[in-house]
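Hey,

Quick one before I head out. I ran the complex with NAP overnight. Inputs first:
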Amino acid sequence: MPTDMMVSPVTTNEPEQGEMERFVFLIHPLDMRDVIRYEPQAASKREPLVRKMLEWMPSSITAHVRGIVSAAGKRAEGWFGLVPFLPSQFVSFPHEAVYEKIVAAARLGQQRGARIAGLGGYTSVVGDGGVTVASRLPDMAVTSGNSYTIATALQGALQAAHRLGMELDSLHCAIVGASGSIGSVCARLLARQARQISLVAKNVNRLAQVAHEIHADTGKTAEIFTEVGPGVREADLVITATSSTGNIITADMLKTGALVCDVSLPHDVAREVATLRPDVLVIEGGLVEIPGPDMNFNFDFGYPPRISLACMAETILLALEGRYENFSLGRGLQLEQVEEISRLARRHGFRLAGFRSFDRPVTDEEIAAVRERANRARRGGVRSFAVGPYFKEAHESTQSL
Ligand SMILES: NC(=O)c1ccc[n+]([C@@H]2O[C@H](COP(=O)([O-])OP(=O)(O)OC[C@H]3O[C@@H](n4cnc5c(N)ncnc54)[C@H](OP(=O)(O)O)[C@@H]3O)[C@@H](O)[C@H]2O)c1
């Protein structure tokens, strides 16, 4: 990563009008593509060497976010604190080594005036969903940002479902990562209205606990799966939010006309789905437009200007509100937190960003085309879209639809 990006200015030139609220948001590269995007010289090095270099690198500040002005007239600025690990390193390294870098990155933000730290990507997935990190930062607020991620993922998924002609009460929904911080709350909220619910993860006991909560809340019996393929095969709507290192949902697994909302980073849906399944709509979950006419992240996430991940948006919202208290921590998030953060988002003028799929925007025409292809496939009895041996044949038949 470029050293000039590591050293950010400590001072700010923001006009002095009202109090400036300050946050730090922790980020990390998702894959080698990201590392090369931040540091082109890494392209000439072998991956094991780059991994070693990341391991040795200390945490740093990569950018100064400026110009956030909310609809309620509140202002905020912040910093991106880089925790230099790849997802697989977060998962495989001893927790202590990872916590140390996370806390160090938050402290760098605090030195610049930040009073809340948002744990982006795997900085909240590692260990216990931010609880230990928060205990090591007693003089700073900490959030994983998961409450607003849940709110925006569900809002986006239901809007997209509506465009595809699907309404929740007639849908079979599958939640992959259903025992996780994000997945469990998505499952409980969807179960209130959905026709049928499937819960997918690896640990059956944790899934059973979520199924039990759903039954207590709605009287419905959720089906449990420990394998992704069978778990999503019959689903009309799939929400996926896992701590896997990606590509666990492949083209042969999905039902004709399915909608998938991929909240995970790195993404769970394999890129092949974009080309092999023209009858399926995959959208990225949890993207938000941040207010402020001159708002600038001063950092390229690969999204259009002003578009942020919902977990970052939650950190900004809590700062704008001056609520310097721990918010979305651990796996047992409360439904009330999701409602509360949605209320703050409305107050400060945060809006759901347009749909994106595989790193690019999705147009209304493209959604209509997916709907049409799925309808034709259903009418033509092309059930084999989702079934292995017939898959190639089905794919070929879509080319002429
Ligand atoms: N888009 C955004 O704004 C945003 C914001 C925050 C987080 N995220 C992303 O959302 C994802 C989930 O975060 P979280 O905090 O909810 O994580 P979490 O609490 O650690 O939960 C992860 C879930 O994934 C399941 N899982 C892991 N590997 C799996 C596999 N191979 N197949 C099926 N299930 C698997 C786990 O099940 P077991 O317990 O059985 O292993 C668990 O249910 C992460 O990728 C994170 O980076 C995105």
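The radius of gyration is 21 Å.

Talk tomorrow,
K.
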